[in-house]
């Protein structure tokens, strides 16, 4: 293992990490009814997909991405639609890209293949390391930001990064910093012909999820970078190619996390304040299936037992058990009888 991140814990980074920890505690411990949790998760999903693809020049608006996420059609090129749909799919199944909380080369290649499906000029470039030299270019200005390492160095550099990422050494580093380090190093290596930024940002999301930082998936990091692309590329470009000191990059990266968590915290405090005054029972713990049931109702307006059995591949009895808790908690209610019976949010 030869990868070792070069950085210093500056007052700026430490202060940001302190703010991040404080905001995260508020978010995870605030009282939220399931409908709000689903809404926040869906909002984060859509914003992440929009901003991460927008950074690289995708023309679809936030409203367009929201329509695509709901299964509706939008006027756009096939490539633009697929970039967004692919990113949405990866984020929705983010836990599928790791086994035993380890991120392997095969997981990164699988992620890249899913992100770039039917979007590249040459489909064979999807899900494999590049076989030719490329340059990192600012999509807004056309300026060459930096030249990545030689193609022949890519496999070894990626192996070094993943070996460190899965080591005990990285486990002792704050997960936000690990996400930022991995984000930068993958962009620096630039292992793919295209889609490196999307892969780096999705990988950072996976790291935060695996390390228990964003278990509720409320956080949106990419909007900060998309809001000022010049700064994003400027900080990436500012790293000395000889020393690869990423201190300034990590300060910028943690600035983004602070901004994101602050927005989420303020939104949650506003949502929960009135409810908390009326009901101090605390958060309602739901299973992943129950959260998905609410998500589907939010999208389609209703859900049936049959649709639940198909969605999860379970028996009608098991589906009924999942939805019964939501009924008991006054989150959803049964409407109709017989074949027309379905559930809606109260």
Q: Which series of helices and strands comes N to C?
A: HHHHHEEHHHHHHHHHHEE
**How widely separated are the two ends?**
54 Å
Calculate the mean pLDDT score and round it.
Answer: 88
- What is the number of beta strands? 4
- Overall outline: globular
Largest sheet: 2 strands, antiparallel
Count of helical regions? 15
- Ranges where pLDDT stays below 50 over 5 or more residues in a row are none
CATH class of the largest domain: Mainly Alpha
CATH architecture term of the largest domain: Orthogonal Bundle
What's the CATH superfamily of the largest domain, by name? Fido-like domain
Residue share in β-strands: under 5%
In the residues, how many domains can be counted?
2
Main β-sheet, spatial strand arrangement: 1-2
Into which percent range does the helicity of residues fall? 55-70%
Gyration radius, to the nearest Å? 21 Å
